[in-house]
Input
Amino acid sequence: MNSAIIVAAGQGFRMGGSVRKPYLSLGGVPILGRTLAVFAHSGLFEEIILVVAAADKEHCRRQVVEGVQTKQAIRLIAGGRERQASVFNGLEASCGQDDDVVLIHDGVRPFVSADDLARCLETVKRHDTCIAAIPASDTLKAVDPDGCISRTLPRETIWQAQTPQGFRLGLIREAHRRAREDAFVGTDDAQLVERLGHTVRIVPGSRVNIKITTPEDLPLAEAILRHARNASPKG
Output
């Protein structure tokens, strides 16, 4: 079985305003609705779990889930205080078995494609783990606490992590449970697997698979959406 956990339980304070960022409009559709539609319409998943803030569950059902045209059941789960806790809740709610595959994705990355999802699923089936990532394009500097450059990092070995991140369900469950026991908080799900000594494989991602985090990201997202519409075959 292939499962998907889409995480959208964050507070979204960096966006400002009174609307949490997953529910902000992107071309007339909530950001989260666009993300969910890619997963639901891909036909690749037997289980889709949407993790949202507990207070948002009914709003999300009306404004997001009911707007996605699919016969597939989409399960709404309450998240935790932090992203890691929200992913844990989603993993615990999954009906999958240890050897099944799960993809974990940020709800505010609406430009993931069905091809991206398929590549990640296939990689996990062969190698047990993967994350989408892109090679760094800028020169990267390590900086000390005084704001001075301590060294220049070798750019050719640096990749920027994205989602989806995919794993065998039993492995990522164990990684999250161990992290909770150790009171360890990672910056992404792959880090929790890495600390158990497992190798995580890179799947080349896309530069348009942006995470909408700050107000400056919205105009960029609108531009990506316009470009995609203009590039779509007419007729």
User: Anything to note?
Assistant: Residues 62 and 139 are 44 Å apart (CA to CA). The first strand starts at residue 2 and ends at 8. The mean pLDDT is 93. The chain is about 35% helix and 25% strand.
